[in-house]
Design goal:
- This protein is α/β, with parallel strands linked by helices and 324 residues long.
- The chain is built from twelve helices and 13 strands.
- The strands form three sheets. It has a six-stranded mixed beta sheet with strand order 4-3-5-12-6-13, with helices on both faces. A five-stranded mixed beta sheet has the order 9-8-10-7-11, covered by helices on one side.
- The termini are far apart.
Length: 324
């Protein structure tokens, strides 16, 4: 039995038992992947997969048991590597983060710059994606940290720590009529076409819920995953934007007005998460602390040790979570 066979097994399950998709995910050829999985079944002497003809449709009971043990085995091997690095090269190795465009573009640059001063030899890998993609990367063990605000049900297998609270801004070209509406209202905003995030990004549901509570049905003219793309179309006059308040670059956005909308929408909390059982190196603790000063090592360790989400929430309730 080879470790790569266990990796192939897990990749197959995460690809919906589609061998072609699993091979693409692993950058392997389909025949090579199929051969290794067949050899694993032959060595174990039990069928691991349910089949319909030549198609794999799922796992047998034996396959599910093997997969569970394979996941633990690979996680423990990775933990051993991390322990080795912690003592042999504490400032080296890699750290991988998956997050959305808004976090990567507007929030993380000063955090990473400060972190790099302490860890100049550490290789950082930044992955951008949708909440579903971020959750998949976290579940597969492909990243160390997931940073997300929305769709938190996708991250049930992670320990999610609250980092900061933020709200939204209504974004218009300078000189727009909404600049003169005081106080700004949802009714006034709903008179214009709306440009905002794709549903599932940046707690888009908070935006929808706010309009629905007022009995309003605004016309969404354009959605995108990238705040900079949305700002491009605001400049073209397609409508008014509703964006995360941190998605403002004062050096580049001097032709736009970011109107405070904190009284119109419920605030959101951005969280950083990692897999349960992940061995946290000192650099991991330091990155979390650099990102959120209210999360020192002892708080992170307490969050890991509590046994239920309720206990974790009680712990987080005592923290002074900053506003962005």
């Amino acid at each position: 039995m080879q470790l790569q066979q266990l990796r192939y097994l897990l990749a197959l399950a995460r690809s919906g038992f589609n061998v072609t998709s699993a091979a693409e995910r692993l950058f392997k050829s389909q025949p090579s992947l199929s051969k290794q999985l067949r050899l694993l079944e032959e060595e174990l002497g039990v069928p691991l997969f349910e089949r319909a003809g030549r198609q794999l449709t799922g796992c047998t009971a034996a396959g599910r048991a093997v997969m569970e043990l394979a996941e633990c085995t690979l996680a423990n091997i990775e933990a051993i590597r991390r322990v080795s690095l912690e003592f042999s090269d504490p400032g080296g190795g890699e750290l991988s983060i998956a997050t959305t465009h808004t976090q990567a573009r507007y929030v993380l640059p000063p955090v990473i710059r400060a972190f790099r001063r302490t860890y100049p030899e550490l290789s950082l890998h930044l992955h951008q994606g949708s909440p579903a993609q971020i959750a998949e990367m976290a579940a597969s063990g492909g990243i160390d940290f997931a940073i997300a605000t929305e769709s938190l049900h996708l991250f049930d297998e992670l320990i999610m720590l609250p980092c900061y609270r933020w709200n939204r801004a209504v974004v218009v070209p300078k000189g727009h009529a909404l600049e003169r509406v005081e106080p700004l209202t949802l009714e006034a905003v709903a008179e214009y076409p709306i440009l905002t995030y794709v549903f599932g990004f940046t707690d888009r549901s908070h935006i929808n819920d706010a309009f629905q509570r007022r009995g309003l049905a605004p016309r969404v003219a354009l959605t995108a995953t990238d705040a900079d793309v949305i700002k491009t179309y605001i400049r073209l006059g397609l409508g008014v934007g509703i964006l995360a308040e941190m998605a403002q670059d004062e050096s580049l956005d001097n032709d736009l007005s970011f109107l405070d909308a904190s009284h119109l929408f419920e605030p959101s909390i951005t969280r950083i998460g990692f897999r349960k059982g992940l061995f946290l190196r000192t650099c991991h603790y330091d990155f979390i602390r650099t990102f959120s000063s209210h999360l020192p090592r002892e708080v992170v360790d307490r969050a890991v040790k509590v046994s239920t989400p309720v206990e974790r929430d009680e712990l987080f309730a005592t923290l002074a979570i900053r506003n962005y």
